[in-house]
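Sharing a chain and its predicted structure for anyone who wants a worked example. Both blocks are below, sequence first, tokens second.
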Amino acid sequence: MILSKITLSNFRNFDTKKVVLHPSTTIITGPNSIGKTNLLEAMYVLITGAGIRDEKQDELIKIGEKTATIEGKLEHNNDIDTLRIYLENGITAKKVFSINKTQKRLFEYTKQVMPTVFFTPKLVHVIDGEPASRRKFIDRILSKLDIEYKKRLGNYETALRKRNKILEKVYDIAKLKDELPFWDTYLIEQAAYICEKRAWFVDQLNSGVAMQNHLFSIIYTEKEISKKTLQDTFDKQYQIKSTRVGPQRDSYEIFQKNLLRPDTEAKNVHQFGSRSEQRLALFWIIVNELKLYEEIFKTAPLLLLDDIFSELDEANREYVVDLIGKYQTVITKTDEEVIKLGKLPHSTIEMVK
């Protein structure tokens, strides 16, 4: 599948914008704050139906406007499909998905398009932020890879809110111990699948693609939810009115070892990694995400790269260029990077103020 064209109306900082994309590589150049990242995000929204950081819908619509549209042409097997997402703000936000003018539910819509991965420095909070950022990011990837995971995660989060409401409203301990067991059993059942898939994903990362001269690994720590852990933490739950065990408390830690310095130990990237090492750790996850999509869905993903070359060493710059040559890629970059990318079949879009 190839995304051949995208048309925007009132998306982010754009009034209107039409872009024709190269089947191999499209290079977007221009000064900072011109909207290069917003253009990539529009492509991501068109394919996935969501922003890169789960922004509120009104943040995707140009300030002062109430509606926005993103439309694209998707070519595959000599056919051309028209994708369209209509956004509308109001008392109730409205989002309408359609393919060839036929409305689709989000699940139906995303099944008919290729997977997409997006690297942008705006996502570096996944590495240098709180554990919740990493959980949310990995949950999003797993929800794309496995619809059952998405369902179980939604079930778990809904049940967890209901259990916490009971903890907040019921003060009688005897009544609490009568009402909670149903939700305890349900949460344990959902959590078993969630934790199994999270462990599987970590195994895939640890046995997947490596970066040049850098060996990354990830450790998954499960905050087990069981009859025993719920019972052992009951007093604390009663005191703070919140469930203290379960997937919502799981954590991921990423470590990096410099292969050029084999005598040094792997270090925690979140705590001790440089900015460039943290960006490389994010890219490591995204490259493995790319490979998993290709393996599971049997189709080449669309690769969106925003400011990827900044702070990468030469070996990893060469790795990125090689990767770009294997997928339809849209990339933002500065003028000094033109020569390296110019060796690839490409078109260039220059954005000006």
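Comments welcome. The longest strand covers residues 67-76.
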